[in-house]
Amino acid sequence: MSGVSEIAARWDAVAARVAESARAAGRDPADVQILAAVKTQTPAAISAALAAGCRVIGQNRVQELTATMPDVRAAWDGPVEVHLIGSLQTNKVNAALREVDCVQSVDRWELAEKLARGAQRRDRHLDVFVQVNASGEETKGGVEPEEAVEFAARVAGLDGLRLRGLMTIGANSSDDGVVRASLERMGELRDAVVGSGAPGTADARELSMGMSGDLDIAIECGSTMVRIGTAIFGPR
Ligand SMILES: *Cc1c(COP(=O)(O)O)cnc(C)c1O
After folding, report:
1. pLDDT, mean of residues 100-124
2. What does 18-42 look like in DSSP terms, one character per residue?
3. Which of 92, 68, 71, 72 is nearest to 80 (CA)?
């Protein structure tokens, strides 16, 4: 784990790399947000990323969010959007709704309905992404690509939820071609969701994909939000 003092420099380097990848792909760097993936990081490290310019953080587990956010908010009173990027058990939905602005890991109907009901009860809306298992790896969460468009359209229709787009974890492979194939598919699925005409899908243009190891390929494939841990905070 790197020291808090190194985090600002690492953040700047990641931001520069993202901007460079966007330009190389003929895209506007402003169209790619950086989410800091903060699992295992201390509140001090998370606050350092926020002070360096980060505005979106993603945590994998609700329990870790509950444990770290009070200290993060005490150290940082500026704007921050909090996303859940790990799998969510239905019995943690209420705890999640207290802490997060967005759940990126919506992967089953029961979860979508429960989030929608909880958001309505709180008289708010919750941003969501539908997670897609684009690589087909058994260890990865997410709906199958074949089911993604229909499922996303149903989720978008739930009162209380605002569908922002699709999320995936790229193939775990050293072969760039394999990674690229899994991520290219996501742009096609997103276009099909947006073009479906289903209520709530017209603005669901976002693609959350790309991590420290594959962010350049992900941006080439249309990512609008990369989720970066190691390149900001050092090895876990
Ligand atoms: C940890 C994690 C990341 C970031 O991974 P790095 O390789 O450390 O950049 C992104 N997305 C999810 C869902 C993660 O769990």
Report:
1. 98
2. HHHHHHHTT--GGG-EEEEE-TT--
3. 72
- For range 38-65, the mean pLDDT: 98
| Residue 1 pLDDT > 60 | no
Q: Residue 207 in contact with residue 165, Cβ under 8 Å?
A: yes
Q: Best substitution site from 18, 106, 227 to test ligand 1's pocket, by max atoms within 8 Å of Cβ?
A: 227
Residue located via tokens 């193939």: 171
Count of C-beta atoms within a 10 Å radius of residue 47: 22
Which pLDDT score, from 0 to 100, does residue 5 have?
A: 86
pLDDT confidence band for 138 (50 / 70 / 90):
confident
Encode 78-111 in three state secondary structure. Answer: CCCEEEECCCCCHHHHHHHHHHCCEEEEECCHHH
Q: Is the CB of 87 under 6 A from ligand 1?
A: no
pLDDT (tens digit, 9 = 90+) per residue, 171-213? 999 999 999 999 999 999 999 999 999 999 999 999 999 999 9
Rounded distance, CA 67 to CA 69, Å? 6
- Tell me which residue has its CA closest to atom 11 in ligand 1: 227
| Cβ of 7 below 6 Å from ligand 1 | no
Whose Cα sits closest to atom 2 in ligand 1?
Answer: 37
Ligand 1 atom 7: residue of nearest CA: 212
Expressed in angstroms and rounded, the spacing between residue 189 Cα and the centre of ligand 1 is 22
Q: 29: Cβ below 6 Å to ligand 1?
A: no
The overall average pLDDT reported for the chain is: 96
- Maximum separation of any 2 CA atoms in the chain, in Å: 48
